[in-house]
């Protein structure tokens, strides 16, 4: 019997982000040190949870597999599912019940940060952010005043699903005529949407995690999209330039890293998190908090980990070690 630590690397998920999750999970599986970990890719899709290597369904009573006549049950779960059912916090409660630690935030924090509007409310007064109009599906059906939205926010605006990731459903609206189609489009991805005033400035991402119980803020990345904003193509298909470490002053670096650590602590985050900002003048404004950020070799957090001096194997190893560490 191997004494390696058993790790279930969760892949897939139930949203349009599934294709991104599959890429992230494969990278984690490839780079986790083989001499230390017995890692298996586990596909989560609806109520079908299976081991990708064998096609075997997991026993959901204890999240186990039968491997060569022996029970295989993970010592830890590596969180690589973007969107539901992990980034929204749904599946974490199941692992809490089973007593299996995981590498991301708990269900409450994940659910909070997936909800963009609630996250902004939780951080009001701590960090500047865009003015918004929040629209429920019920309010939309009953009728909303487009003129009032434009009067309050101006143009351009961003229309986005309230609880979705990878920029699915997001559109930049420059004219009054574009607003209604953008709202209708966003409602295809969520029951609630946000219309946000545009923040004109430079975009940055900053990763943060705990190592040996201490908060470690990674180098800052500037994101320079080829498109009008950091959309799906820019994030995952190479239509952006990312500069790590960012070409900003030492004071601005200190400012954003301090803010990142403060937000991580304020929201009671765990695992590795990426926080995105717009820099306007000399002040960073919050865009969003990502509790399951992309993990491909080209993704921002891996870039930052390597700029910090870690290999991807070291970075993923540290994430699992932290998940397994006894709670203080």
Q: State the end-to-end CA separation.
A: 31 Å
Radius of gyration: 20 Å
- Shape estimate: globular
> Which structural class is indicated by helix and strand composition?
alpha+beta
Helices, by number, come to 11
Counted beta strands? 15
> Assembly type of the shown chains?
single chain
- How would you characterize the largest beta sheet? 5 strands, antiparallel
**Helical proportion, percent range:** 25-40%
Low-confidence stretches: 230-237
What's the rounded overall pLDDT mean?
A: 92
- Per DSSP, what share of the residues sits in E-state strands of 2 or more residues? 25-35%
From N to C, what is the helix and strand string? Answer: EHEEEEEHHHEHHEEHEEEHEHEEHH
Strand adjacency order, main sheet: 13-12-11-14-15
Description:
This protein is α+β, with helices and mostly antiparallel strands and 328 residues long. 32% of the residues lie in helices and 28% in strands. It has helices spanning 18-31, 92-98, 107-114, 116-122, 137-142, 146-153, 176-186, 232-236, 250-266, 300-308, 312-324, and strands at 5-12, 37-45, 48-51, 65-67, 70-72, 76-78, 132-136, 157-161, 171-173, 192-197, 202-211, 214-225, 240-243, 273-280, 283-290. The strands form four sheets. A five-stranded antiparallel β-sheet has the order 13-12-11-14-15, sandwiched between helices. β14 (273-280) and β15 (283-290) form a beta hairpin. The protein is globular. 41% of the residues are buried. Residues 230-237 have low confidence and may be disordered.
